[in-house]
Amino acid sequence: MSLEINLIDDSPLTTIKKDSSSRKIRFSCITQSTPMTADEILKLMENSSEELIKSDSKEEIYKNISDRRCRSDGLMNWTSYGDKCIGCQILYRLSRTSTLKNRELEISIGKYRGKKIKIFRVPGFREEYRRNKILETINNKINKGDENFFTVDNKYINYVFISSVYNYIFKDAGFYNQYLWNYGCGDKLIILKKIIPIRSVRILSQNPYFSGVRSPVENEKVEIIKEKTCFQIILQLLYICTTLRKYNFCHSEPVIKFISYMEKTNTFQLGDRDFTTPFILVLENCCSSSISFEGKRYCKFNSGKFYYQGLPVEKIDVFISPTQNFTREEYKSKEYNKARCHYYLIGNRLQGFINYMESGIPIFADSFQIICFFVSYLLDPIFYSGFSNSEIGMTIWRGLWRGEDYNLLMSDMRQLRDKKRNSTEDIRSIVRKYYIRIDALDYLVHYFTKQKENC
Ligand SMILES: [Zn+2]
């Protein structure tokens, strides 16, 4: 029997509408004969992250929906024979087409009509997170942590799981990532992501609402973004990073290619202030991101790359900073306390640092992440064009670094910006060379939320 999906929009019977909106359906209990509207399906997909995270056996993420016998490959290969799995039938009913072009599904019915979803087919079937005691031992040595570590071999399963935790954490705050839903079909994992059209600062700046004054010379098009928009980006990023810090989140590749923007108003609290922004910053995690949730740490298994190698930084040092220090421990002299600042230099230990990070062992995760994102933004010519106009913004940025490093750092960044380079490797090649403030995230939150002009 096929899955039935009714069009409630067309139904003359309002009582049916009422009934269906109060029905409680979960993906884990639908069968091929469960009648569902397209809107209900989309809602279920939106709620699937929460359903997974709240389930008792969340490490077995394939308990969701999976069918090894299906041959239609997530609607990529629609054959006339054999039953389609429930997941593929759901996709078919949403799009009303039997084959998908460009891996994109356009919803053809209901209130989400016209919205597009991207379908990814990746290898993997029935892989689960397993306890990893080696990582626990290393984490105990490095961080004195006593968490239970869980790793999974398949990086896509890790992507789905971390994305689900992310969506769950930010559910009430109005932030989310692209991830929508997954199911198992044949020997593939099918991942659905929302298509977010504004994929870069450049595209965001094409909206006159976010773009600043263009060149006064006719015919010479200079793209520029408002200082205020730059600040709204930074504030949202700081909010997201501050929230994720509670979960010891490691992105692993903190660069702006993982960030996109939705034109939708959002309000959030940072420091002791409320902020409202006309767009939402959508941060996508990557396949080797890791997170701690309810006493367990979830990460991708990093085979062969990993062994205990001590603290993977070249130096940790204390310098007197011209700006306020946010490190929490106390020393004897108040004046010294206020001015001293802990920094670390990754230097020649970069590979070890990356191995730890990609294996899920957090080391200076919050400061490293925010510094990498910030460097990546300032390598973006459009963002830089707006942000560098702000005296206060540049002063805050300068305060992140040691005075003697600043000019060299800016010259390194200028060279990369001129060559239009902004890859993960480019960012790492820069940040490894300079001392990074351990309190970078608190420092930025303090100064960005204190200043009034652009917020
Ligand atoms: Zn299927």
Strand content: 15-25%
Radius of gyration: 24 Å
Query: What shape does the CA trace take?
Result: globular
Overall number of domains: 2
The number of helical elements comes to 15
Average pLDDT, all residues: 86
Q: Whole-Å distance between the termini?
A: 56 Å
Commentary on this structure:
This protein is an alpha+beta fold and 455 residues long. The chain folds into two domains: 8-67 and 69-124 and 184-194, no CATH class; 201-450, no CATH class. It contains 15 helices and 16 strands. A hairpin with a 2-residue loop joins strand 6 (179-185) and strand 7 (188-194). Helix 10 crosses helix 14. Zinc ion binds next to helix 3. Zinc ion is lined by residues 70, 72, 84-85, 87-88, 185.
Short description:
With 455 residues, this protein is α+β, with helices and mostly antiparallel strands. The chain has helices at residues 14-22, 38-54, 86-95, 133-143, 155-169, 201-205, 227-245, 334-339, 350-358, 365-379, 381-387, 391-398, 403-418, 424-431, 440-450; strands at 66-67, 104-106, 116-123, 130-131, 148-152, 179-185, 188-194, 259-262, 266-270, 273-277, 280-283, 291-293, 296-300, 315-320, 340-345, 436-437.
